[in-house]
Specification:
By secondary structure, the protein is of the alpha/beta class. The protein has 23 helices and 8 strands. An 8-stranded mixed sheet has the order 3-4-2-1-5-6-8-7.
């Protein structure tokens, strides 16, 4: 049976052994923001210098292509722009800066007094300062039809180890607000490549105009340093899946990087890394598909997977199935604390540990607790909350919860904080050889299907005509209306199959459907129902 594109993507993401990196190009800003193309930006600068004249601009591009033709023999028209545009940028830079320093009328027409003062005081290149001035106008455009995809991408940002980009606009840091930004090759080369949740802006950033890579001289300098950068990024490319978004597969920025990497890896290592390189490219309304592409670099070759998609969110949603639920800000804080503690020769009091020399401690017994230092005495079952338990009930992935302290400590805390929450106790009392009579009387638990019934608001959604195969028929009847699904599942609680309800809840948990504020309560109650149906026997 042929797999759907969604199933193929699921297979790819399921095979990830490490959190993936994103490698982001201009196409992402053009997809989700009001970004202009490289050519449009150059023409905007041309107009400032020479006035609006598209014919002369196109003629200048054709002249440069003609002059470079001897070195671009085997290049496609799409590839040639990566050589022609930087050369034109160099010519415009010389003319722009000459005018800035010699023509006060030009200076006052292009920059405010404050901007010109900023250029002089910080020794910014005037041309690059103007490029960043144009780029600062780029912002996420909520009117674009693709904008809806971003909610899913941002929701699962803790499933992304880091971002590498040649963009110098600020779209990425505005989307991934808790990521640390590293600008330029020098800072990246000096950084700890094992750090997570960082945005590496290898072509510079608008926050530092001199850092941007835009002219032919900039690209030459970048290429001269590329091997150093390649070796720095080699660990990322070998150990992590790398997802390319916003690039053409023939983009010289990418091809030169892969060429440098291919020189560092043996053919066997390249073969092992083949599943790590994934390109997402727009389908532009045509059929979505998965392709395998091969690129040769001397005697070596690199295989890459290309996903041709109209809706990128079908890939972003699968990122949500990766197991990594700790918030970005907390993980960065934890990483920084541990790194400083390990490297420093000065004792700190923000990491506390007991004896670790006991022969009884092994990988299975060692654990880490992260939390406020003034509540360190509460470490243990007091620290778990209802979401930890619900996840374990659905996925059976927290065996350490199977302890009587869960009943006496954790459930007691949850009950005191939120007395109206139904507690899923049956899985645990069954395994601990306890009975429902051992549960304190003030715990709110399901004792019959009648305890789960639609509330006054939900009653209007009940369909009394649904027969048999209840979960599937409810979903089929109301495919896009979750409140109606919830109401009818409660109404037919006594007839619901436990395993079908479990599959339904696990699917929505993975997709994050229930984590909207108005749906969490229903999620908790239906999971308690699943616990009752599955384990109360």
């Amino acid at each position: 049976m042929l797999l759907s594109i969604q199933e193929k993507i699921k297979e790819i993401v399921t095979s990830f052994n490490q959190l993936p990196y994103l490698f982001v190009g201009t196409g992402l800003s053009m997809r989700y923001a009001n970004a202009f193309s490289w050519g449009d930006l150059l023409y905007q600068i041309w107009c400032v210098i020479y006035g609006e004249d598209r014919f002369k601009f196109d003629k200048a591009l054709q002249r440069i292509e003609y002059e470079l033709n001897s070195t671009l023999i085997n290049k496609t028209d799409e590839q040639k722009k990566y050589y022609v545009f930087p050369q034109l940028a160099s010519e415009l830079q010389y003319r722009f800066n000459t005018l800035y320093y010699t023509d006060e009328a030009f200076e006052s027409r292009v920059f405010t007094k404050e901007e010109s003062k900023d250029i002089i005081q910080n020794k910014y290149d005037p041309f690059k300062f103007y490029v960043t001035k144009c780029t600062l106008q780029i912002y996420i455009d909520v009117t674009k039809p693709e904008y809806a995809e971003l909610d899913t991408l941002v929701q699962y940002q803790n499933k992304i180890a880091g971002i590498i980009t040649t963009n110098y606009d600020t779209c990425l840091e505005n989307l991934f607000k808790d990521f640390e930004v590293m600008i330029g090759q020098e800072k990246i080369l000096l950084s700890n490549v094992n750090s997570i949740f960082e945005i590496y802006k290898i072509h510079g950033c608008v926050s530092d105009p001199n850092s941007i890579v835009f002219t032919s001289n900039d690209y030459q300098y970048f290429d001269d340093k590329l091997k150093y950068l390649s070796s720095k990024l080699l660990t990322i490319f070998v150990e992590h899946p790398v997802i390319f978004i916003g690039y053409g597969m023939g983009d010289p920025n990418i091809q030169e990087l892969f060429s440098a990497i291919s020189e560092c890896l043996s053919p066997d290592a390249l073969q092992k890394a083949k599943d790590n390189f994934i390109f997402i490219t727009p389908a532009f309304g045509t059929n979505e598909e998965l392709r395998t592409r091969e690129f040769n670099y001397g005697t070596n070759k690199i295989l890459m997977t290309e996903l041709v998609l109209n809706d990128y969110s079908i890939f972003y949603k699968e990122l949500g199935t990766i197991v990594s639920s700790m918030p970005v800000k907390l993980m960065r804080k934890m990483q920084d604390m541990v790194t400083r503690y390990v490297y420093s020769t000065t004792a700190t009091n923000n990491i506390i540990f007991g004896s670790i020399n006991s022969p009884d401690i092994d990988d299975g017994k060692a654990a880490i607790y992260v939390g406020s230092i003034d509540t360190i005495s509460q470490i243990g079952f007091d620290s778990f909350d209802i979401m930890d338990i619900l996840e374990d009930v659905l996925f059976n992935n927290k065996p350490f919860l199977m302890n009587q302290k869960l009943i006496t400590n954790t459930f007691k805390n949850i009950r005191s904080i939120s007395g109206s929450t139904y507690l899923p106790v049956y899985k645990y009392i069954k395994s601990l050889n306890m009975s429902i009579d051992d549960i304190p009387g003030n715990y709110l638990v399901i004792k019959s299907c009648a305890d789960i019934k639609p509330n006054s608001t939900e009653k209007k959604y009940v369909d009394t005509q649904i027969k048999d195969d209840f979960i599937q028929n409810i979903v089929n009847a109301y495919p896009n209306h979750l409140p109606k699904q919830f109401a009818n599942i409660k109404y037919y609680a006594c007839y619901i199959n436990a395993d079908e309800l479990g599959d339904y809840l696990r699917s929505h948990y993975k997709n994050g459907t229930y984590f909207e504020r108005t749906r969490v309560s229903a999620f908790k109650k239906l999971t308690a129902l699943y616990d009752y149906l599955k384990y109360n026997n």
